[in-house]
Amino acid sequence: MEQQTGTFAVKKGLAQMLKGGVIMDVVTAEHAKIAEDAGACAVMALERVPADIRAQGGVARMSDPELILKIKESVTIPVMAKCRIGHFVEAQILESLKIDYIDESEVLTPADEEHHILKHNFTVPFVCGCRNLGEALRRIGEGAAMMRTKGEAGTGDVVEAVRHARTVLGEIRKIQNMPKEELMAYAKNIGAPYELVLETAELGRLPVVNFAAGGIATPADAALMMQLGVDGVFVGSGIFKSGDPAKRAAAIVKATTHFRDAGILAEVSKNLGEPMVGRNVSQMPEGEKIAGRGW
Amino acid sequence: MKIGVLALQGDFAEHIAMLKRLGAEGVEVRLPKHLEGLQGLIIPGGESTTIGKLAVAYDLMEPLRAFAKDHAVWGTCAGAIFLSKDARREQPLLKVMDITVQRNAFGAQVDSFEADLDIAELKQATDTTHPYHAVFIRAPIIESVGGDARILSALPDGRIVAAQEGHLLATSFHPELTNDARFHKYFLSLAS
Questions:
Q1: A41 vs B12, B47, B57: nearest CB
Q2: If 0-12 CB within 10 Å is exposed, 13-18 middle and 19+ buried, where does residue B61 land?
Q3: Alpha carbon of A257: minimum distance to chain B alpha carbons (Å)
Q4: What is the pLDDT of residues B48-95, one digit of tens each?
Q5: Please, which residues 41-80 of chain B have a Cβ atom closer than 8 Å to chain A?
């Protein structure tokens, strides 16, 4: 009997197992344990959470493999790690570490300002960020097996996450209602592969799992994104930059499951302590925004 | 037929879509009250630790155990772990099926795979002859079966990937990720 690894069904399949869950940014093995104990469905191993990357500036790169391995050894849930946009050697290194998912992420400083990684070349699956349908389908065309709307990472301000989710989901609703003969011109206008536009219109959703990311800091934020129609949420700085990470993490997990139950949402939102301080995106200079990275 | 799908976390929507294809109604189960009026329950793939913690937090453990006594219940991957009596580590388990499982038995995601299985009972029950194409994602194996539990399918090296104990069913793989509805049909026959 032949066993086939690295097929698209298997890559996409792991993201399907993460649905309805919360993926948490962690910078130490201790954080990873807290996240797992709180019910995270996966963790993102990195050296600095986005809020610190913003505050400290400089070039943000793939994390030290030693740190990633330590985090991997500390939990049984899937572990993801980030590489820079276009940096396929960082991706090769992460694959050799047997990481479960690679995030080709705009949160790190891009290595290529024109091209993303050809993700079909890898056995390990990739997740990528998007702000609109064209960007999502270009990444899927390159082999991404999972998407996340970008939001504005490290701000604790959910406004961009909402904007990007509404944009992607709104464009899908639009193409579902278009006569088929208009889809070629639409694909051309948004710079997306025609076949994927057709598939998306037929499915009424992206052909891969789509999470929300970038600015989710409270249980209500997570439930808001779920009600808008995403499949799950990434929480970066929102947990470990808050006053009581374990409690907030568990509350966000519960809110993501019971996202339509306002009574439960009220219950889990009680006494969570200080949220991350946050930065108002509308008052942020354009040059400081990172969602624009990605082509 | 109304079949519940535990919707705490994981790919419950895929199971509900498959049930719909077969003319059954899939109902999302998040709280004990959602179990009323159901003829069977599917526990989907996902993260077994996440599903277990949420089941404990919302007092589902005892209602699920009671439901499994006289209804068909099927666990896929994380669901199979959740049904087992032993997963070789400390985590919430229903312990309703006499199987011992090992989590992530094939390694990391890069070792996840697809393979054809020859499942005599499934072929017979659905009156078909072609092999069953199975998708394994960071899959567990069933190390051993005890009591009334029996092996439904094993890999050529002998590792058990599907087991049945009366009206309880456990699979390491994900029929909900394929277009082959035979396993769901088989489960509906146990539920009716």
A1: B47
A2: middle
A3: 6
A4: 999 999 999 999 999 999 999 999 999 999 999 999 999 999 999 999
A5: 45-47, 49-50, 53-54, 57-58, 77-78
* CATH architecture for segment(s) B2-191: 3-Layer(aba) Sandwich (3.40)
Strand, helix or coil for residue B5: strand
The helices-and-strands tally (H runs, E runs) of chain B is: 6, 12
Closest-CA distance, B116 to chain A, in angstroms, reads 7
- In tens, the pLDDT along A137-172 reads 999 999 999 999 999 999 999 999 999 999 999 999
Average pLDDT (A104-110) is: 96
pLDDT digits (tens, 9 = 90+) for A225-242: 999 999 999 998 999 999
Cβ-proximal residues to B92 (8 Å cutoff; 6+ apart), any chain = B52, B53, B55, B56, B61, B82
Partners of residue B104 in chain A, C-beta under 8 Å:
76
Interface test with B, best of A2, A4, A5 (most B CBs within 10 A): A5
Average the pLDDT over A115-127 and give the result: 98
**pTM of this structure:** 0.97
HSE-CB for A25 with a 13 A CA cutoff: 29
Nearest beta carbon to residue A3 from set B50, B103, B115: B115
* Tokens 């024109």 belong to residue: A114
Residues in chain B closer than 8 A to A125 (CB atoms) = 109
User: Is B81's Cβ below 8 Å from some Cβ in A?
Assistant: no
pLDDT of the residue at A76: 96
Catalytic entry in B15, B34, B77, B165 = B77
Tokens 């792991």 belong to A14
In eight-state DSSP terms, residue B24 is P
Full 3-state SS string of chain A: CCCEECCHHHHHHHHHHHCCCEEEEECCHHHHHHHHHHCCCEEEECCCCHHHHHHHCCCCCCCCHHHHHHHHHHCCCCEEEEEECCCHHHHHHHHHCCCCEEEEECCCCCCCCCCCCCHHHCCCCEEEEECCHHHHHHHHHHCCCEEEECCCCCCCCCHHHHHHHHHHHHHHHHHHCCCHHHHHHHHHHHCCCHHHHHHHHHHCCCCCEEEECCCCCCHHHHHHHHHHCCCCEEECHHHHCCCCHHHHHHHHHHHHHCCCCHHHHHHHCCCCCCCCCCCCHHHCCHHHCCCCCCC
Residue A82 annotated among the catalytic residues of the structure: yes
What sign has the CA pseudo-torsion B23, B27, B32, B37? negative
Name residue, tokens 């009591």: B147
Domain boundaries, chain B: 2-191
**ipTM at complex level:** 0.97
**Contacting residues of A for B89, CB less than 8 Å apart:** 76
